[in-house]
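Hey L., structure's done. Input below.
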Amino acid sequence: KRYLDFTSSEKELRLTLLPSENCNFRCPYCFIYDRRGISMKKEVYKAALAMIAGRISGAQSLAVNWFGGEPTLEKAGILAFMGEVRGLLCGRSGIKFSSGIYTNGYLLSAPAFLEYLDSGITFFQVTLDGNRETHDKVRSLRVGGGTFDIIWKNLCSIRQAAGADERFAFKIRVNFMKDQDAQIQELLEEYEKVFGSDPRFSIYFRAVSNMDTSRDDIRPIKGGIYGIEDGLSKQVDYYLNAANKLGKLDTRSRITAPVPDPIGGWCSAQKKNSWIIGADGLVFKCDTLIGDASTACGRLLENGTIESFNKTCAWDENIYDAKESKCLSCKFLPVCQGGCPRDRQNRLSAGKCYYTEATIEKAMKETHLYYKSRAAAAQKAPAVQTVGAEGSL
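Output:
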């Protein structure tokens, strides 16, 4: 029931738009199969608006997210579209609207951030790969050259320019590979100085995944990539280290909680009304397969409907329909719902799961120790006396 409620809701519409399928970076682990180097056409923007207009009357929530390529290469198109969406929503107070942008941060200057924020985008995510040393090795410009310093300068300027504005949430995602403990620690110390006391900013950690593409760019760094279980274990280490340093454990969502909770589904690709719209109007379900036309599930038409290609990729099947016995007999099924459907068959045939008893046990114990140490520290803290209105203690 939880899975069906998650996947089959008619009351929400989630669109992820790719305003640019080009990118100013050349990260070797990027999972985009083909960098098609195209910008979203005006007719695709219009078709996306037509889809929203056609479905919004029966919806209770609308999410418009921006991905790429690198979305900030097409700022004007994003801002114009957001203005049109605000017009469609005018007078519809019963619809919950959200919008986020996932960017490498290189072009996200403070003035640009404020423009996006005023347009209605209230969630921002920027990725760093540890400190300057590790980041610049893998997240370099397409034309060559490091990017860490400019991104960090942008992040610092954004916090200053935002003042006391509480309309937004900002996540800094940290990708990591093997033997980077010192570099991650250095980044965390700098993060604490600038953002540690600001509740609008949060930091989380993800191991780099080995997703082979037709380009094979990832080959030179394969030796530094963690396996599933080891990567998750290290991720827990980084989470708890950050929590102890920052004094707060971020448990607001699945991707930031070290201990897993029951979920409805693994990702929004499984939702009935969740679509990724490519720059040329091709429609995808999985964000790790965008740019590969052979995996497109349809095409967005001018009137806002989708011309279905009537095919289902091997990964696009839930475990209940597939009657996957290993998953259906697993006591951890509620916390992963079979995991990522894209590579489920390969993963299961290799005997690997994202969550295992060992990793969950470690996360539970370490999280318990975190709360226990915080409680002990609070008990040892001296009582704080306050001065009353008349000056008496």
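The longest helix spans residues 357-380. Residues 384-393 have pLDDT under 50 and may be disordered.

-- N.
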